[in-house]
Amino acid sequence: MQINLAEKVLQRIFPFLEWWPEVNKGTLKADLVAGLTGAVIVLPQGVAFATIAGLPPIYGLYTAMITPIVAALFGSSRHLVSGPTTAISLVVFAALTQLGAEPGTDDFIAKALTITLLAGIFQFLLGVGRMGTLINFVSHVVVVGFTAGAALLIMQSQLKHLLDLPVAGGSTFVKTLKTLALNIHHTNFFALGVGLFTLLLAIFSKKYLPKIPNLMVALVGGSLLAWGLAQVFGSEQVALKMVGEVKGRLPRPSLPDLGFDSLTQLAQSAFAIALLGLIEAVAIARSIAVKSQQQIDGNQEFIGQGLSNIVGSFFSCYAGSGSFTRSGINYEAGARTPLAAVFAALMLVVIVLLVAPLIAYLPIAAMAGVIMMVGYNLIDFKFARTVMRSSRRQSMVMLITFVATLVADLEMSVIIGVMFSLIFYLQKASTPNVAVMAPDPDDANRRFTYLLRKQLPECPQMKTLRLDGSIFFGSVNHISSEIRELVDEASPDVHSLLIVAQGINFIDVAGSEWLLHEAKRWEQKGGGLYFTGLKLNAQETLIRGGFRAEIGEEHFFVSKEEALRVLVPMMLDDVCANCRFRIFNECAGKPNLNQAAIPENAGAI
Q1: Topology at the third CATH level for domain 431-589
Q2: Please, are residues 487 and 453 in contact by the beta-carbon 8 Å criterion?
Q3: Residues 46, 64 contacting (CB under 8 angstroms)
Q4: What DSSP assignment string belongs to 192-222?
Q5: Residue 162: how many other CB atoms lie within 10 Å
Q6: In percent, how much of the chain has pLDDT > 90?
Q7: Model confidence over 52-75: pLDDT tens digits?
Q8: Which residue ranges make up each domain of the chain?
Q9: With 50 as the cut, is the pLDDT of residue 598 above it?
Q10: Are 42 and 250 in contact (CB under 8 A)?
Q11: Is there a contact between 162 and 195 (Cβ–Cβ < 8 Å)?
Q12: What pLDDT does residue 30 have?
Protein backbone atom coordinates (compact mmCIF):
# COMPACT_ATOMS: atom_id res chain seq x y z
CA MET A 1 0.00 0.00 0.00
CA GLN A 2 2.81 2.40 0.97
CA ILE A 3 4.78 1.42 -2.16
CA ASN A 4 1.78 2.17 -4.39
CA LEU A 5 1.27 5.50 -2.67
CA ALA A 6 4.96 6.36 -3.09
CA GLU A 7 4.77 5.44 -6.78
CA LYS A 8 1.73 7.67 -7.28
CA VAL A 9 3.46 10.59 -5.54
CA LEU A 10 6.59 10.15 -7.71
CA GLN A 11 4.48 9.91 -10.87
CA ARG A 12 2.69 13.09 -9.85
CA ILE A 13 5.99 14.93 -9.44
CA PHE A 14 7.71 13.25 -12.40
CA PRO A 15 4.89 12.32 -14.84
CA PHE A 16 7.34 10.79 -17.33
CA LEU A 17 7.74 7.85 -14.90
CA GLU A 18 4.23 6.77 -15.91
CA TRP A 19 5.04 6.17 -19.59
CA TRP A 20 8.76 5.38 -19.24
CA PRO A 21 8.18 1.60 -18.72
CA GLU A 22 6.51 1.50 -22.16
CA VAL A 23 9.75 2.55 -23.90
CA ASN A 24 11.30 -0.30 -25.88
CA LYS A 25 13.22 -0.90 -29.09
CA GLY A 26 10.08 -0.48 -31.20
CA THR A 27 8.95 2.79 -29.62
CA LEU A 28 12.50 4.20 -29.74
CA LYS A 29 12.70 3.57 -33.49
CA ALA A 30 9.29 5.17 -34.12
CA ASP A 31 10.14 8.16 -31.91
CA LEU A 32 13.52 8.68 -33.62
CA VAL A 33 11.88 8.83 -37.07
CA ALA A 34 9.20 11.23 -35.80
CA GLY A 35 11.88 13.29 -34.04
CA LEU A 36 13.97 13.69 -37.20
CA THR A 37 10.90 14.85 -39.12
CA GLY A 38 10.08 17.34 -36.37
CA ALA A 39 13.63 18.72 -36.28
CA VAL A 40 13.63 19.43 -40.03
CA ILE A 41 10.19 21.08 -39.79
CA VAL A 42 11.03 23.34 -36.86
CA LEU A 43 14.28 24.75 -38.32
CA PRO A 44 12.67 27.29 -40.67
CA GLN A 45 9.77 27.83 -38.26
CA GLY A 46 12.09 28.70 -35.39
CA VAL A 47 13.87 31.30 -37.51
CA ALA A 48 10.57 32.72 -38.80
CA PHE A 49 8.85 32.89 -35.41
CA ALA A 50 11.81 34.58 -33.73
CA THR A 51 11.69 37.19 -36.50
CA ILE A 52 7.98 37.77 -35.75
CA ALA A 53 8.84 38.19 -32.07
CA GLY A 54 11.48 40.81 -32.89
CA LEU A 55 14.33 38.61 -31.69
CA PRO A 56 17.48 37.36 -33.45
CA PRO A 57 16.70 34.10 -35.35
CA ILE A 58 18.85 31.95 -33.05
CA TYR A 59 16.47 32.61 -30.15
CA GLY A 60 13.68 30.83 -32.01
CA LEU A 61 15.95 27.83 -32.41
CA TYR A 62 16.98 27.93 -28.73
CA THR A 63 13.28 27.89 -27.82
CA ALA A 64 12.75 24.89 -30.08
CA MET A 65 15.60 23.06 -28.32
CA ILE A 66 14.81 23.59 -24.62
CA THR A 67 11.03 24.14 -24.34
CA PRO A 68 9.90 20.86 -26.02
CA ILE A 69 12.09 18.69 -23.76
CA VAL A 70 10.77 20.10 -20.48
CA ALA A 71 7.14 20.26 -21.70
CA ALA A 72 7.29 16.66 -22.98
CA LEU A 73 8.71 15.28 -19.74
CA PHE A 74 6.39 17.17 -17.39
CA GLY A 75 3.20 17.45 -19.45
CA SER A 76 0.49 14.83 -19.87
CA SER A 77 0.23 14.53 -23.68
CA ARG A 78 2.13 11.82 -25.56
CA HIS A 79 2.23 13.79 -28.81
CA LEU A 80 2.19 17.52 -27.99
CA VAL A 81 5.32 19.31 -29.23
CA SER A 82 5.99 22.71 -27.67
CA GLY A 83 8.25 25.52 -28.81
CA PRO A 84 7.95 28.88 -30.57
CA THR A 85 4.53 29.66 -32.09
CA THR A 86 3.20 32.46 -34.28
CA ALA A 87 0.55 33.82 -31.93
CA ILE A 88 2.80 33.88 -28.85
CA SER A 89 5.63 35.42 -30.90
CA LEU A 90 3.35 38.21 -32.06
CA VAL A 91 2.09 38.93 -28.54
CA VAL A 92 5.67 39.08 -27.23
CA PHE A 93 6.57 41.54 -30.01
CA ALA A 94 3.47 43.70 -29.41
CA ALA A 95 3.88 43.75 -25.63
CA LEU A 96 7.55 44.74 -25.69
CA THR A 97 7.36 47.33 -28.49
CA GLN A 98 4.49 49.05 -26.65
CA LEU A 99 6.89 49.49 -23.75
CA GLY A 100 9.37 51.21 -26.07
CA ALA A 101 11.84 48.35 -26.41
CA GLU A 102 13.64 48.27 -29.78
CA PRO A 103 13.43 44.82 -31.46
CA GLY A 104 16.72 42.92 -31.58
CA THR A 105 18.43 45.02 -28.88
CA ASP A 106 19.84 43.68 -25.61
CA ASP A 107 17.06 45.48 -23.71
CA PHE A 108 14.40 43.82 -25.89
CA ILE A 109 15.97 40.38 -25.39
CA ALA A 110 16.22 40.87 -21.60
CA LYS A 111 12.56 41.88 -21.42
CA ALA A 112 11.58 38.89 -23.59
CA LEU A 113 13.33 36.54 -21.15
CA THR A 114 11.64 38.23 -18.17
CA ILE A 115 8.16 38.04 -19.70
CA THR A 116 8.82 34.36 -20.46
CA LEU A 117 9.78 33.67 -16.83
CA LEU A 118 6.66 35.45 -15.53
CA ALA A 119 4.39 33.63 -18.00
CA GLY A 120 5.90 30.32 -16.90
CA ILE A 121 5.37 31.12 -13.23
CA PHE A 122 1.72 32.03 -13.87
CA GLN A 123 1.18 28.79 -15.80
CA PHE A 124 2.89 26.68 -13.15
CA LEU A 125 0.87 28.24 -10.32
CA LEU A 126 -2.39 27.73 -12.22
CA GLY A 127 -1.47 24.06 -12.70
CA VAL A 128 -0.47 23.51 -9.08
CA GLY A 129 -3.66 25.31 -8.00
CA ARG A 130 -5.74 22.84 -10.06
CA MET A 131 -7.11 25.64 -12.25
CA GLY A 132 -7.12 23.60 -15.46
CA THR A 133 -10.86 24.16 -15.82
CA LEU A 134 -10.17 27.85 -16.54
CA ILE A 135 -9.57 26.87 -20.16
CA ASN A 136 -13.20 25.78 -20.40
CA PHE A 137 -14.22 29.44 -20.14
CA VAL A 138 -12.31 30.30 -23.30
CA SER A 139 -14.58 29.24 -26.14
CA HIS A 140 -13.21 28.06 -29.46
CA VAL A 141 -14.74 31.08 -31.22
CA VAL A 142 -12.55 33.37 -29.07
CA VAL A 143 -9.46 31.43 -30.10
CA VAL A 144 -10.49 31.49 -33.78
CA GLY A 145 -11.23 35.24 -33.64
CA PHE A 146 -7.92 36.00 -31.93
CA THR A 147 -5.97 33.74 -34.28
CA ALA A 148 -7.50 35.35 -37.36
CA GLY A 149 -6.66 38.81 -36.03
CA ALA A 150 -3.14 37.71 -35.11
CA ALA A 151 -2.75 36.21 -38.59
CA LEU A 152 -3.60 39.57 -40.20
CA LEU A 153 -1.15 41.35 -37.91
CA ILE A 154 1.54 38.79 -38.76
CA MET A 155 0.99 39.22 -42.50
CA GLN A 156 0.86 42.99 -42.15
CA SER A 157 4.08 43.01 -40.12
CA GLN A 158 5.84 41.30 -43.03
CA LEU A 159 4.62 43.69 -45.73
CA LYS A 160 7.41 46.13 -44.89
CA HIS A 161 9.98 43.36 -45.50
CA LEU A 162 8.19 42.14 -48.61
CA LEU A 163 8.13 45.65 -50.09
CA ASP A 164 11.38 46.75 -48.36
CA LEU A 165 9.75 49.88 -46.94
CA PRO A 166 10.55 51.58 -43.61
CA VAL A 167 7.85 51.37 -40.91
CA ALA A 168 8.36 52.50 -37.32
CA GLY A 169 8.19 49.74 -34.73
CA GLY A 170 5.10 49.57 -32.51
CA SER A 171 2.82 51.28 -35.07
CA THR A 172 -0.87 50.42 -34.96
CA PHE A 173 -2.58 48.30 -37.63
CA VAL A 174 -4.17 51.31 -39.35
CA LYS A 175 -1.06 53.51 -39.03
CA THR A 176 1.15 50.80 -40.53
CA LEU A 177 -1.17 50.40 -43.54
CA LYS A 178 -1.23 54.17 -44.01
CA THR A 179 2.58 54.39 -43.88
CA LEU A 180 2.93 51.57 -46.41
CA ALA A 181 0.37 53.19 -48.73
CA LEU A 182 2.15 56.56 -48.62
CA ASN A 183 5.54 54.95 -49.41
CA ILE A 184 4.39 52.33 -51.89
CA HIS A 185 6.23 54.09 -54.76
CA HIS A 186 9.54 53.29 -53.00
CA THR A 187 8.93 49.54 -53.26
CA ASN A 188 11.98 47.40 -53.94
CA PHE A 189 10.64 45.13 -56.71
CA PHE A 190 13.57 42.73 -56.35
CA ALA A 191 12.56 42.13 -52.71
CA LEU A 192 8.91 41.84 -53.73
CA GLY A 193 9.80 39.33 -56.44
CA VAL A 194 11.90 37.17 -54.07
CA GLY A 195 9.17 37.26 -51.41
CA LEU A 196 6.34 36.35 -53.81
CA PHE A 197 8.44 33.61 -55.43
CA THR A 198 9.16 32.13 -51.99
CA LEU A 199 5.47 32.32 -51.06
CA LEU A 200 4.32 30.65 -54.30
CA LEU A 201 7.01 27.97 -54.00
CA ALA A 202 5.84 27.20 -50.45
CA ILE A 203 2.22 26.87 -51.63
CA PHE A 204 3.22 24.74 -54.65
CA SER A 205 5.46 22.36 -52.69
CA LYS A 206 2.85 21.96 -49.95
CA LYS A 207 0.21 20.99 -52.50
CA TYR A 208 2.22 18.81 -54.86
CA LEU A 209 5.09 17.62 -52.64
CA PRO A 210 3.39 17.15 -49.26
CA LYS A 211 6.00 14.72 -47.89
CA ILE A 212 8.88 17.20 -47.94
CA PRO A 213 9.12 20.29 -45.69
CA ASN A 214 7.60 22.99 -47.88
CA LEU A 215 8.94 25.92 -45.84
CA MET A 216 12.49 24.61 -46.14
CA VAL A 217 12.09 24.14 -49.90
CA ALA A 218 10.66 27.66 -50.24
CA LEU A 219 13.47 29.29 -48.24
CA VAL A 220 16.15 27.49 -50.25
CA GLY A 221 14.40 28.46 -53.50
CA GLY A 222 14.03 32.10 -52.44
CA SER A 223 17.70 32.25 -51.42
CA LEU A 224 18.80 30.82 -54.77
CA LEU A 225 16.66 33.36 -56.64
CA ALA A 226 18.17 36.19 -54.57
CA TRP A 227 21.67 34.91 -55.37
CA GLY A 228 20.80 34.71 -59.07
CA LEU A 229 19.42 38.27 -59.15
CA ALA A 230 22.54 39.56 -57.39
CA GLN A 231 24.72 37.85 -60.02
CA VAL A 232 22.74 39.32 -62.94
CA PHE A 233 21.97 42.85 -61.70
CA GLY A 234 24.64 43.30 -59.03
CA SER A 235 24.28 43.25 -55.25
CA GLU A 236 24.03 47.04 -54.94
CA GLN A 237 21.28 47.29 -57.55
CA VAL A 238 19.26 44.45 -56.05
CA ALA A 239 19.85 45.73 -52.48
CA LEU A 240 18.37 42.71 -50.72
CA LYS A 241 18.70 42.62 -46.94
CA MET A 242 19.85 39.33 -45.40
CA VAL A 243 19.09 37.76 -42.03
CA GLY A 244 22.74 38.08 -41.05
CA GLU A 245 25.20 35.93 -39.18
CA VAL A 246 23.79 33.25 -36.88
CA LYS A 247 26.41 31.48 -34.80
CA GLY A 248 25.87 27.74 -34.45
CA ARG A 249 26.05 27.13 -30.73
CA LEU A 250 24.15 25.59 -27.86
CA PRO A 251 21.63 27.65 -25.86
CA ARG A 252 23.49 29.97 -23.54
CA PRO A 253 22.63 30.40 -19.85
CA SER A 254 20.78 33.68 -19.34
CA LEU A 255 19.36 35.66 -16.45
CA PRO A 256 16.00 37.45 -16.80
CA ASP A 257 15.67 40.91 -15.26
CA LEU A 258 14.27 40.23 -11.79
CA GLY A 259 14.02 43.89 -10.77
CA PHE A 260 10.72 44.95 -9.17
CA ASP A 261 10.01 47.63 -11.80
CA SER A 262 10.57 45.21 -14.66
CA LEU A 263 8.41 42.50 -13.13
CA THR A 264 5.47 44.82 -12.41
CA GLN A 265 5.77 46.43 -15.85
CA LEU A 266 5.55 43.08 -17.64
CA ALA A 267 3.16 41.21 -15.33
CA GLN A 268 -0.07 42.01 -17.21
CA SER A 269 1.34 41.05 -20.60
CA ALA A 270 2.92 37.93 -19.11
CA PHE A 271 -0.44 36.78 -17.75
CA ALA A 272 -2.05 37.23 -21.18
CA ILE A 273 0.80 35.26 -22.77
CA ALA A 274 0.43 32.56 -20.11
CA LEU A 275 -3.30 32.28 -20.75
CA LEU A 276 -2.89 32.23 -24.53
CA GLY A 277 -0.11 29.64 -24.30
CA LEU A 278 -2.25 27.37 -22.13
CA ILE A 279 -5.21 27.71 -24.47
CA GLU A 280 -3.04 26.73 -27.43
CA ALA A 281 -1.33 23.83 -25.68
CA VAL A 282 -4.41 22.24 -24.08
CA ALA A 283 -6.58 22.69 -27.19
CA ILE A 284 -3.93 21.03 -29.38
CA ALA A 285 -3.28 18.24 -26.86
CA ARG A 286 -7.00 17.48 -26.62
CA SER A 287 -7.57 17.52 -30.38
CA ILE A 288 -4.76 14.97 -30.93
CA ALA A 289 -5.86 12.93 -27.89
CA VAL A 290 -9.20 12.35 -29.64
CA LYS A 291 -7.30 10.48 -32.37
CA SER A 292 -4.82 8.73 -30.08
CA GLN A 293 -7.45 7.75 -27.47
CA GLN A 294 -5.38 9.33 -24.69
CA GLN A 295 -6.70 11.06 -21.58
CA ILE A 296 -5.30 14.59 -21.10
CA ASP A 297 -4.76 16.05 -17.64
CA GLY A 298 -5.24 19.82 -18.06
CA ASN A 299 -3.61 20.67 -14.74
CA GLN A 300 -0.51 18.60 -15.55
CA GLU A 301 -0.32 20.24 -18.97
CA PHE A 302 -0.37 23.63 -17.22
CA ILE A 303 2.53 22.52 -15.03
CA GLY A 304 4.49 21.18 -18.01
CA GLN A 305 4.04 24.38 -20.02
CA GLY A 306 4.91 26.51 -17.00
CA LEU A 307 8.10 24.60 -16.23
CA SER A 308 9.17 24.70 -19.88
CA ASN A 309 8.95 28.50 -19.94
CA ILE A 310 10.56 28.92 -16.51
CA VAL A 311 13.53 26.72 -17.45
CA GLY A 312 13.67 28.20 -20.95
CA SER A 313 13.96 31.76 -19.65
CA PHE A 314 17.30 30.81 -18.04
CA PHE A 315 18.61 29.33 -21.32
CA SER A 316 17.98 32.15 -23.82
CA CYS A 317 14.45 30.99 -24.79
CA TYR A 318 11.41 33.19 -25.21
CA ALA A 319 7.81 32.16 -24.45
CA GLY A 320 6.67 28.97 -26.15
CA SER A 321 3.56 26.82 -26.29
CA GLY A 322 2.14 23.82 -28.10
CA SER A 323 2.47 23.87 -31.88
CA PHE A 324 -0.45 22.44 -33.87
CA THR A 325 1.68 21.88 -36.99
CA ARG A 326 4.57 20.13 -35.24
CA SER A 327 2.29 18.18 -32.89
CA GLY A 328 0.16 16.98 -35.80
CA ILE A 329 3.21 15.95 -37.81
CA ASN A 330 4.64 14.24 -34.72
CA TYR A 331 1.49 12.13 -34.40
CA GLU A 332 1.24 11.39 -38.13
CA ALA A 333 4.93 10.44 -38.24
CA GLY A 334 4.21 7.62 -35.77
CA ALA A 335 5.48 9.00 -32.46
CA ARG A 336 4.69 6.62 -29.62
CA THR A 337 5.94 8.48 -26.52
CA PRO A 338 7.00 12.03 -25.57
CA LEU A 339 10.60 10.99 -26.35
CA ALA A 340 9.83 11.94 -29.98
CA ALA A 341 9.71 15.63 -28.92
CA VAL A 342 12.94 15.16 -26.95
CA PHE A 343 14.66 13.56 -29.96
CA ALA A 344 13.44 16.37 -32.24
CA ALA A 345 15.00 18.97 -29.94
CA LEU A 346 18.32 17.08 -29.69
CA MET A 347 18.51 16.53 -33.46
CA LEU A 348 17.81 20.23 -33.98
CA VAL A 349 20.93 20.97 -31.91
CA VAL A 350 23.02 18.88 -34.32
CA ILE A 351 21.42 20.46 -37.39
CA VAL A 352 21.91 23.99 -36.08
CA LEU A 353 25.58 23.36 -35.33
CA LEU A 354 26.00 22.24 -38.96
CA VAL A 355 23.83 24.68 -40.93
CA ALA A 356 23.57 27.80 -38.72
CA PRO A 357 26.15 29.74 -40.77
CA LEU A 358 23.97 29.24 -43.88
CA ILE A 359 21.05 31.08 -42.25
CA ALA A 360 23.02 34.31 -42.74
CA TYR A 361 22.33 34.06 -46.49
CA LEU A 362 18.54 33.94 -46.12
CA PRO A 363 16.97 37.06 -47.67
CA ILE A 364 14.60 38.83 -45.27
CA ALA A 365 12.12 39.14 -48.16
CA ALA A 366 12.11 35.34 -48.52
CA MET A 367 11.48 35.01 -44.79
CA ALA A 368 8.60 37.46 -45.19
CA GLY A 369 7.08 35.29 -47.92
CA VAL A 370 7.23 32.21 -45.70
CA ILE A 371 5.77 34.06 -42.71
CA MET A 372 2.94 35.43 -44.87
CA MET A 373 1.96 31.83 -45.66
CA VAL A 374 2.25 30.83 -42.01
CA GLY A 375 -0.08 33.71 -41.10
CA TYR A 376 -2.64 32.84 -43.77
CA ASN A 377 -2.73 29.20 -42.67
CA LEU A 378 -3.67 30.30 -39.16
CA ILE A 379 -7.11 31.53 -40.30
CA ASP A 380 -9.79 28.87 -39.92
CA PHE A 381 -12.14 29.98 -42.70
CA LYS A 382 -14.28 26.82 -42.54
CA PHE A 383 -15.04 27.13 -38.82
CA ALA A 384 -15.64 30.88 -39.13
CA ARG A 385 -18.23 30.30 -41.88
CA THR A 386 -19.94 27.63 -39.76
CA VAL A 387 -20.17 30.01 -36.78
CA MET A 388 -21.52 32.85 -38.94
CA ARG A 389 -24.25 30.56 -40.27
CA SER A 390 -25.25 28.93 -37.01
CA SER A 391 -25.11 31.46 -34.14
CA ARG A 392 -25.48 35.22 -34.00
CA ARG A 393 -24.11 35.47 -30.45
CA GLN A 394 -21.07 33.30 -31.20
CA SER A 395 -20.46 35.28 -34.40
CA MET A 396 -20.48 38.50 -32.37
CA VAL A 397 -17.93 37.08 -29.90
CA MET A 398 -15.68 35.95 -32.76
CA LEU A 399 -15.89 39.33 -34.54
CA ILE A 400 -15.36 41.34 -31.34
CA THR A 401 -12.25 39.29 -30.52
CA PHE A 402 -11.02 39.66 -34.10
CA VAL A 403 -11.44 43.46 -34.09
CA ALA A 404 -9.98 43.76 -30.57
CA THR A 405 -6.89 41.90 -31.76
CA LEU A 406 -6.39 44.47 -34.52
CA VAL A 407 -7.14 47.69 -32.63
CA ALA A 408 -6.59 47.01 -28.89
CA ASP A 409 -3.56 45.88 -26.93
CA LEU A 410 -2.89 42.40 -28.26
CA GLU A 411 -2.44 40.86 -24.84
CA MET A 412 -5.92 42.11 -23.85
CA SER A 413 -7.82 40.84 -26.89
CA VAL A 414 -8.30 37.29 -25.57
CA ILE A 415 -9.54 38.66 -22.24
CA ILE A 416 -11.96 40.95 -24.12
CA GLY A 417 -13.20 37.97 -26.14
CA VAL A 418 -13.67 35.85 -23.00
CA MET A 419 -15.47 38.74 -21.29
CA PHE A 420 -17.98 39.17 -24.13
CA SER A 421 -18.47 35.42 -24.47
CA LEU A 422 -19.37 35.25 -20.75
CA ILE A 423 -21.64 38.30 -21.08
CA PHE A 424 -23.55 36.71 -23.97
CA TYR A 425 -23.71 33.41 -22.11
CA LEU A 426 -25.09 35.06 -18.96
CA GLN A 427 -27.51 37.03 -21.13
CA LYS A 428 -28.86 33.78 -22.54
CA ALA A 429 -28.78 31.95 -19.20
CA SER A 430 -30.69 34.79 -17.52
CA THR A 431 -33.56 34.52 -20.02
CA PRO A 432 -34.59 30.85 -19.91
CA ASN A 433 -37.45 29.64 -22.05
CA VAL A 434 -40.84 29.76 -20.29
CA ALA A 435 -43.67 28.29 -22.37
CA VAL A 436 -47.32 27.32 -21.84
CA MET A 437 -48.12 23.64 -22.51
CA ALA A 438 -51.27 21.56 -22.97
CA PRO A 439 -52.22 18.07 -24.24
CA ASP A 440 -52.50 17.87 -28.04
CA PRO A 441 -55.78 16.16 -29.10
CA ASP A 442 -54.36 15.49 -32.59
CA ASP A 443 -51.41 13.52 -31.22
CA ALA A 444 -52.01 9.76 -30.97
CA ASN A 445 -50.55 9.73 -27.46
CA ARG A 446 -51.96 13.20 -26.61
CA ARG A 447 -48.53 14.37 -25.49
CA PHE A 448 -48.09 17.85 -24.08
CA THR A 449 -46.98 20.44 -26.63
CA TYR A 450 -46.21 24.16 -26.63
CA LEU A 451 -49.08 26.58 -27.26
CA LEU A 452 -46.69 28.67 -29.34
CA ARG A 453 -46.72 25.89 -31.94
CA LYS A 454 -50.44 25.16 -31.83
CA GLN A 455 -53.57 26.73 -30.32
CA LEU A 456 -54.88 24.15 -27.82
CA PRO A 457 -57.62 24.16 -25.16
CA GLU A 458 -56.38 24.64 -21.60
CA CYS A 459 -57.67 23.91 -18.13
CA PRO A 460 -59.42 27.09 -16.89
CA GLN A 461 -58.15 26.53 -13.32
CA MET A 462 -54.57 25.31 -13.75
CA LYS A 463 -51.85 26.54 -16.09
CA THR A 464 -49.01 24.22 -17.15
CA LEU A 465 -45.64 25.84 -17.93
CA ARG A 466 -42.39 24.30 -19.04
CA LEU A 467 -39.22 26.04 -17.82
CA ASP A 468 -35.92 25.30 -19.58
CA GLY A 469 -32.96 26.84 -17.78
CA SER A 470 -31.64 27.52 -14.31
CA ILE A 471 -33.46 29.53 -11.64
CA PHE A 472 -30.74 31.76 -10.21
CA PHE A 473 -30.25 35.39 -9.22
CA GLY A 474 -29.77 36.46 -12.84
CA SER A 475 -32.90 34.76 -14.23
CA VAL A 476 -35.45 35.24 -11.42
CA ASN A 477 -36.67 38.61 -12.69
CA HIS A 478 -37.15 37.31 -16.24
CA ILE A 479 -39.00 34.15 -15.12
CA SER A 480 -41.23 36.17 -12.78
CA SER A 481 -42.13 38.62 -15.55
CA GLU A 482 -42.85 35.78 -18.00
CA ILE A 483 -45.16 34.00 -15.53
CA ARG A 484 -47.10 37.18 -14.81
CA GLU A 485 -47.49 37.86 -18.53
CA LEU A 486 -48.36 34.29 -19.58
CA VAL A 487 -50.54 33.41 -16.58
CA ASP A 488 -51.68 36.35 -14.46
CA GLU A 489 -52.53 38.71 -17.33
CA ALA A 490 -53.68 36.11 -19.87
CA SER A 491 -55.67 33.92 -17.46
CA PRO A 492 -56.63 35.85 -14.31
CA ASP A 493 -59.00 33.07 -13.09
CA VAL A 494 -56.25 30.43 -12.96
CA HIS A 495 -55.43 29.62 -9.32
CA SER A 496 -52.83 26.85 -9.71
CA LEU A 497 -49.59 26.57 -11.63
CA LEU A 498 -47.88 23.31 -12.60
CA ILE A 499 -44.24 23.72 -13.68
CA VAL A 500 -42.83 20.97 -15.91
CA ALA A 501 -39.32 21.09 -14.48
CA GLN A 502 -37.23 18.49 -16.34
CA GLY A 503 -35.30 21.35 -18.03
CA ILE A 504 -34.26 22.99 -14.74
CA ASN A 505 -30.65 22.10 -13.93
CA PHE A 506 -29.81 24.44 -11.07
CA ILE A 507 -31.57 26.55 -8.44
CA ASP A 508 -29.58 28.92 -6.22
CA VAL A 509 -30.59 30.63 -2.94
CA ALA A 510 -32.12 33.64 -4.73
CA GLY A 511 -34.10 31.27 -6.95
CA SER A 512 -35.23 29.22 -3.93
CA GLU A 513 -36.42 32.33 -2.09
CA TRP A 514 -38.35 33.47 -5.15
CA LEU A 515 -40.02 30.04 -5.53
CA LEU A 516 -41.09 30.18 -1.87
CA HIS A 517 -42.63 33.64 -2.32
CA GLU A 518 -44.28 32.49 -5.56
CA ALA A 519 -45.72 29.41 -3.80
CA LYS A 520 -47.26 31.62 -1.09
CA ARG A 521 -48.68 33.94 -3.76
CA TRP A 522 -50.46 31.02 -5.45
CA GLU A 523 -51.74 29.76 -2.10
CA GLN A 524 -53.35 33.17 -1.54
CA LYS A 525 -55.15 32.68 -4.85
CA GLY A 526 -56.70 29.50 -3.48
CA GLY A 527 -54.47 27.05 -5.30
CA GLY A 528 -50.78 26.37 -5.29
CA LEU A 529 -47.47 26.14 -7.12
CA TYR A 530 -46.52 22.58 -8.14
CA PHE A 531 -43.53 20.91 -9.79
CA THR A 532 -43.21 17.76 -11.86
CA GLY A 533 -39.96 16.06 -12.88
CA LEU A 534 -37.61 18.37 -10.94
CA LYS A 535 -34.23 16.62 -10.84
CA LEU A 536 -32.78 15.78 -7.45
CA ASN A 537 -29.51 17.63 -8.07
CA ALA A 538 -31.50 20.77 -8.97
CA GLN A 539 -33.26 20.55 -5.58
CA GLU A 540 -30.05 20.60 -3.52
CA THR A 541 -30.43 24.23 -2.35
CA LEU A 542 -34.19 23.83 -1.91
CA ILE A 543 -33.66 20.86 0.41
CA ARG A 544 -30.63 22.12 2.35
CA GLY A 545 -32.14 25.56 2.88
CA GLY A 546 -35.47 24.14 4.04
CA PHE A 547 -37.30 25.78 1.13
CA ARG A 548 -38.80 22.52 -0.15
CA ALA A 549 -40.25 21.67 3.26
CA GLU A 550 -41.70 25.18 3.60
CA ILE A 551 -43.26 25.03 0.11
CA GLY A 552 -44.63 21.59 1.00
CA GLU A 553 -43.53 18.09 0.03
CA GLU A 554 -46.96 17.52 -1.52
CA HIS A 555 -46.15 20.17 -4.15
CA PHE A 556 -43.43 18.06 -5.80
CA PHE A 557 -44.28 15.19 -8.19
CA VAL A 558 -42.13 12.73 -10.09
CA SER A 559 -44.24 12.70 -13.27
CA LYS A 560 -47.09 14.55 -14.99
CA GLU A 561 -49.41 11.56 -14.53
CA GLU A 562 -48.85 11.57 -10.76
CA ALA A 563 -49.36 15.35 -10.63
CA LEU A 564 -52.63 15.19 -12.60
CA ARG A 565 -53.98 12.32 -10.49
CA VAL A 566 -53.54 14.46 -7.37
CA LEU A 567 -54.28 17.96 -8.71
CA VAL A 568 -57.31 17.52 -10.99
CA PRO A 569 -59.56 16.18 -8.18
CA MET A 570 -58.64 19.33 -6.21
CA MET A 571 -60.05 21.63 -8.92
CA LEU A 572 -63.29 23.54 -8.06
CA ASP A 573 -66.33 21.42 -8.95
CA ASP A 574 -68.53 24.34 -10.03
CA VAL A 575 -65.90 25.45 -12.58
CA CYS A 576 -65.33 21.89 -13.80
CA ALA A 577 -69.10 21.36 -14.20
CA ASN A 578 -69.27 24.14 -16.80
CA CYS A 579 -65.92 23.36 -18.51
CA ARG A 580 -66.24 22.61 -22.23
CA PHE A 581 -62.72 21.22 -22.63
CA ARG A 582 -62.10 18.59 -19.91
CA ILE A 583 -58.67 17.88 -21.32
CA PHE A 584 -57.45 15.38 -18.69
CA ASN A 585 -58.49 11.77 -18.00
CA GLU A 586 -59.02 12.74 -14.38
CA CYS A 587 -61.78 15.16 -15.48
CA ALA A 588 -64.07 12.08 -15.73
CA GLY A 589 -64.47 12.14 -11.96
CA LYS A 590 -65.63 15.77 -11.91
CA PRO A 591 -69.23 17.10 -12.38
CA ASN A 592 -70.13 17.71 -16.04
CA LEU A 593 -73.22 19.86 -16.66
CA ASN A 594 -72.30 20.24 -20.37
CA GLN A 595 -71.96 16.47 -20.80
CA ALA A 596 -68.84 17.18 -22.86
CA ALA A 597 -67.18 14.10 -24.25
CA ILE A 598 -63.89 13.39 -22.52
CA PRO A 599 -61.15 12.68 -25.09
CA GLU A 600 -59.60 9.23 -24.97
CA ASN A 601 -56.18 9.18 -23.21
CA ALA A 602 -56.63 12.84 -22.34
CA GLY A 603 -53.59 14.33 -20.67
CA ALA A 604 -51.29 11.38 -21.37
CA ILE A 605 -47.63 12.14 -21.84
Answers
A1: Transcription Regulator spoIIAA (3.30.750)
A2: no
A3: yes
A4: HHHHHHHHHHHHHHHHH-TTS-HHHHHHHHH
A5: 26
A6: 27
A7: 899 988 899 999 999 999 999 998
A8: 27-424, 431-589
A9: no
A10: no
A11: yes
A12: 86
